[in-house]
Amino acid sequence: MQLYELTLKQLKSKLINQEISSSEIVDSILDRIKVVDEKVKAFITVTEDMAKNLAKDLKQNSESKVLTGIPYGLKDDMCTNGVRTTCASKMLENFTPNYDATVVSRLKDQGGVLIGKLNMDEFSMGSSTEQSAFFATRNPWDLSRVPGGSSGGSAAAVAADELPFALGSDTGGSIRQPASFCGIVGFKPTYGSISRWGVMPFASSLDQVGIFSKDVQDCATVMNVIAGKDQLDSTSVDLDSTDYISYLDTNIKGMKIGFPKEYFQKGMNEEVKALIMKALNKYEEMGAIVQEVSLPHSEYALQAYHVIASAEASTNLARLDGVEYGLRDFQADNVVDMFSNSRAKGFGDEVKLRTMFGTFVLSSGYYERYYLKAMQVRRLVNEDFNKVFQDVDVIISPTTMNTAFKIGQKADDVLSLYMNDVLTVPVNMAGLPGISIPCGFIDGLPVGMQIIGKPFADGSVLKTAFAFEQNTDYHKQKPVLGVN
Amino acid sequence: MDLTIKDIEDIALLARLNLSEQEKETLIKELGTLFNFVDKLQDLDTEGIEPLINTLSVYNVFRSDEVRQSPSREEMLSNAPLTEDGYYKVPKIM
After folding, report:
1. What does the alpha-carbon distance between residue A453 and residue A395 come to, in Å, rounded to a whole number?
2. How far is CA A268 from CA A272, A275, A408, B38, in A?
3. H or E stretch including A351?
4. Could you tell me what percentage of chain B is helix, strand and coil, using 3-state DSSP and rounding each to the nearest 5?
5. What distance in Å separates the CA atoms of residue B10 and residue B7, rounded to the nearest whole number?
């Protein structure tokens, strides 16, 4: 085994036993990136010199913390002091923050080594990473296919062994869907459990930072580092005493699992459905009780989501006006034209579309019919979950209706791309924790299973995922990139 | 919903987006598709249902009022496209 193939836990144990140094790990990861990233194209920025220097410094410093010497990557919507943070947009192509997002400070404080910033759909608006203003990232399992999105660079990098773990953000499925397409673990914790300070907002009432990793154990380890209250994010919740690793045991006897009938709808790949049913059988063998449940308002969640997310995005993106930072048009001789020209040059087509849609639904004459209505529907979606969680501990469904699609396949059809998120969006609407873990393959492409928990029952979600993982080996499968 | 070029231009001004004629034509079509898609929401009777703005029940979050380190003026201005004498500079407003 090469060092770049190892999990966080395996690397840590080799470091503690002094079998290897953090420089060796960082060099192995950087070499791997040089060999495969030409094909995968996961990275926007590789912080090679910074990483090498930090790893060297760590050698002299014997204090061992949770992530000492462990490499990681970040979706390029998280501010990094002194490292360009683009959101994959021309608008922020030359933006270099002078502060770290809270999650970045926490990873740094625990000794983690930043390797680089990862590709995404521009301002997280997309489900394929094709909407990046720079280039499309490719799926390591089949380079002609998308890795999913919007955190597609983070997912592809972990799947291609370019990183042991990475952070992403999830507004409607942007962690779980790419994790599913790339055959790795992708966790979106409960809304409020991780600080979002310093992370570029898309839709603030739905956004959540989360984790991509090679297994559930590593996911819990990173969760311990980044979760908890932050003075700078008033929506963050005090969870500092929670030890997520303590939830990882395989005894799920008597656990009640619901599968929502509405999620197994027309258009779902029958083989995906069969793999989830097989996984549910596995859970029954392990002693869980599986029952059908109903989330009747699911069919309206995607519509309500697009109204709310676009409305919040149009407000959040108003900050990008060419004044404080970002692209500026110097031709205009008055301030309104300067704003309007800068934004027209800086934003890509999808961002313009959603900004326009969001401005429409918030404007007089549309507000009640669309925005207010969508928030009422959000209440109904939330109540559906509350009711079901009176009877079951977790809900299990496929993460996506199908496996990864071809690059360019959905380019001309906005709605067919949006449909990708139909099984993940309700979880954000209700602020719940959700994870995607590998549960099989169809024609060599990974399939993800989504496990959804009660608010702040993130530990139960991790436990349910862990129990499955311990009894299967799907997460150990690796894509063949032809360069091993 | 049938949108007109005038609708698009009105909203584009609110959104501070200078759109080309071709972009306006494309947006009429794409926004029309989106509105048709979300009009499904009108099938639901939501009379009397309280809107859900945020799923957290966190209110009045306080922290202690103490001086802490924050970036300097120079640092904050370092990303600005145009500055003068420690201020952001923009074209004339009125």
Report:
1. 7
2. 7, 12, 21, 21
3. helix A349-362
4. 40, 5, 55
5. 5
Query: Which of B2, B5, B18, B82 is the best mutation test for A, with the most CBs of A within 10 A?
Result: B18
Dihedral sign (CA A113, A117, A119, A124)? positive
CA gap A138, A283 in Å, rounded: 33
CA quadruple A404, A410, A416, A420: dihedral sign: positive
Give the relative orientation of helices A298-316 and B21-38 as an angle to the nearest 10 degrees. 140
Residue-wise pLDDT for B23-67, tens only, equals 999 999 999 999 999 999 999 999 999 999 988 876 777 888 899
Cβ-Cβ contacts under 8 Å for B82 (sequence gap 6 or more): A328, A330, B88, B89, B90
- With an 8 Å Cβ cutoff, are A356 and B8 in contact? yes
| Amino acid letter, residue A482 | G
State whether B41 and A336 contact (CB < 8 Å): no
For residue A344, list chain B residues with Cβ-Cβ distance below 8 A.
Answer: 17-19
Residue A83: what pLDDT? 98
> Could you give the CA distance from residue A226 to residue A108 in angstroms, rounded to a whole number?
10
Q: Which of A280, A277, A273 is nearest to A257 (CA)?
A: A280
Q: Which residues from B are below 8 Å from A376, CB to CB? A: 46, 49-52
ipTM score assigned to the predicted complex = 0.96
CA dist., res. A76 & res. A114, Å (int): 12
Please judge whether A357 and B41 are an interchain contact, meaning their C-beta atoms are less than 8 angstroms apart.
no
**Which chain A residues are closer than 8 Å to B26 by Cβ?**
349
3-class DSSP state for residue A352? helix
A180: left (phi over 0), alpha (psi -120 to 50) or beta: alpha
Nearest alpha carbon to residue B10 among A314, A332, A364, A347:
A364
Amino acid, single-letter form, for residue A262: E
Chain A partners within 8 Å of B35 (Cβ): 360
Per the CB < 8 A criterion, the answer to whether A326 and A280 are in contact is no
Of the candidates A431, A370, A434, which has an alpha carbon nearest to the alpha carbon of residue A188?
A434
Using CB atoms, which residue from B16, B38, B61 is nearest to A370? B38
| Cβ contact A466:A223 at 8 Å | no
Strands A165-170 and A71-75: parallel
Residues of A marked as catalytic: 75, 150, 174
Reply yes or no on whether the pLDDT at A240 is more than 90. Answer: no
Q: What amino acid is encoded at A206 in this protein? A: L
E runs forming strands in A384-482: 394-398, 434-442, 445-453
For tokens 């990974």, the residue is A446
Please report the pLDDT score of residue B57 as a whole number.
Answer: 74
Q: Does A237 touch chain B (CB under 8 A)?
A: yes
> Is B85 buried (19+), middle (13-18) or exposed (0-12) by CB count in 10 A?
exposed
According to DSSP H, which parts of A118-258 are helical?
A: 152-159, 176-182, 216-226
Whether A377 contacts chain B with CB within 8 A: yes
* pLDDT tens sequence across A18-70: 999 999 999 999 999 999 999 999 999 999 999 999 999 987 666 789 999 99
Cβ contact A71:A24 at 8 Å: no
